[in-house]
Please model this.
Amino acid sequence: MRIDTFDPAALSDAFGIDMSTIDLPGVIGLGASWGRVAPGTRSDAHQHDEIEMFVIVSGSGEVVVDGARHPVQPGTVIKFDPFETHVLDNTGDTDVVFVTCYWREPRHAGEVAARPGRRRFAERPVFVFSTPPTPNGDLHLGHLSGPYLGADAFVRFQRMNGVRAWHLTGSDDYQSYVVAQAAQEKSTPEQVAAHYGAEITRTLELMDIRPDQFTVTSTDPGYREGLRDFFAALEASGKVARRELPALFDKETGQYLYEVDVSGTCPSCEAATNGNICEECGEPNNAADLVEARTRRSGAVRTGSVERLALPLHEFREVVTAHHRLGRVPARLRELAERVFTRETFELPLSHPAQWGVPPCGVDGQVIWVWPEMSYGFLHGIAELGARIGETWHPDKPEQNWKIVHFFGYDNSFYHSILYPVLYRLAFPDWEPDIDYHVNEFYLLDNRKFSTSRRHAVWGKDILSPETVDAVRFYLSRTRSEGERTNFEREAYTATVREVLIHRWQSWLDALGRRLNTRFAGVIPDAGIWTPEHTAFYARLGGRLAAVTAHLGQDGFSLRAATAELEGIVTDARAFAEREEVLAGASGWQSENRTAMALELAAARLLSRVATPVMPRFAARLAALLGESEPSWPSTVDLVPAGTRVDLTGQVFFASEPSAPEPQEAAPDPLPWLAELVRSTLGLPAEAVVADRTLRELGASSLQAVAVQYQILERLDLDVPMSELLSERNVAALSQKLAEAVAR
Model:
């Protein structure tokens, strides 16, 4: 016999509380420990592959399992499945003492990991957000391939599994980029936001993306008041306060500079960047810490300071770390947090001197910075959705049972996964937001960034139509930038439609229909005798189903991997049909031939179901031809009921010639623009002739050359080496070189 008693002196820190090991000599595979949670504290959120059991010995509190809270007291026994995220929260005034036992059952752990409804997705509301687009332009394929397609497919899959999931987004009207676009168009921010916001919603509709909630921040009647109340709560926390901080100003006009109005070199990774965030490394900057900062207007800046509402972000490392242990947080985001929190101090401004936006209470001449504003916007969207569907959800009272899922590009990672959890902690100290993050990298066009200024883009409206939308969704899913930058090529897209969707998918379904008509008069036969090859094919389809389920699920979501499995279903079915074809007319194998036909049609049925999140129109049409309507997500590979009449012959699912975009006019000669850029950057008179002289001859300093280099990058998306700018090539020759590069 072995007796172990609770000894406070033996406790040490583990999982954020006090624990000590219970020694069980001779017991194989079972671990045990004592644990103590002090009043007002809680254990760290965590999950593991073991089955675990808590026995509460003394004290009272709550155990939180994937967002659900349950009271505990002496005598309470709790068993946790593998991978259940759990927290023991002491809500009483005495220690909670408990015993934990844990052991491994690999088979059970494997089954739990594969469950589509893991983490209580089927038991609570799931709010899926795609980052609200900035209404300073329409959506191109680079935009569509990331958050919007991802969130749409995610929600479709969850709904097929019975989850109450909604897609929410909106129009991020108060961006400084809207102001810049208004100046360029000689319009107003209100007009620009309204115009492009409407264009964005039409493009999403063409993509078969219909958000359940679309918040227009500048016109929503309750938005401004709610946002100001949210920021008042942040100030009431005592952490967000007015602080005099370094700032940049245009040297000529005195304009305060941030975001789009200032550029320079990232102080962390040395990449070219605008103010406040570096798209390359994901780290924030305060504009004033940019290296060789310069303005869009004159290039010259001066340093100073200005009082703004600011947050001492460096104090919240533990808050962010604890949050990152609660939901799905890719390693890429956790690594970004590690880099951000290496800074000894980081005072982050939350307001900026500007006119376009919502002023915080009691701060004149400033607006709430649009990025922290967005943290409230998500909660506002939930409340607006709830009001329409009969739910009492409030933006000032977020609920622990909410499951939030964010889709965004990597350049937005800092805001979503680091800043917002801190703001939520300050505004709602008792709320532990349970958030999953899905991040995509840049999607390129012909191996270069999508660019509006030099017309290097394929706009959604250029390529989307009822005939092409599924093909576009398929190709964007197949090439989606998950974990790495990927590329769109129009010729590759056209070839994929022709060779994959038409020559493989459509031709297989057509051939299947013809064989069904010829051999069984268009009526699906009942399966007969099964051969080992039949069983192997059936099992292979089951493997495809398991794989695509995992790739569309909340833990391992990957449209690229899911699309590969869709292709695999068709590849497997075609190969199976070719092997079985040799016995099609043999008189002694009619029963086995019926099984082969039934199995091939089962593959078509499986495809019609699992393709729904990626290609909803194709899937719905194929399902209807097979006698189904609005199928749920399958748990097994099912045969199509015998006796069903099906006609797949000659059906056209995909357009052979996708609609070509409207021809665009040739880019203008860059010389007039380049000459004016050189004159303004070097401070030369407006009448100065520069075309026949080099930058060196004109007296350009290294800093001025860098300013010219950056403006070329911004306008033409061309990264011209410094050696090229300071070569013996005059401005006219340099302009010709730029024109040739743009043409390529």
Q: What stands out?
A: Residues 658-666 have pLDDT under 50 and may be disordered. The longest helix spans residues 490-520. The first strand starts at residue 12 and ends at 14. The two ends are 82 Å apart (CA to CA).
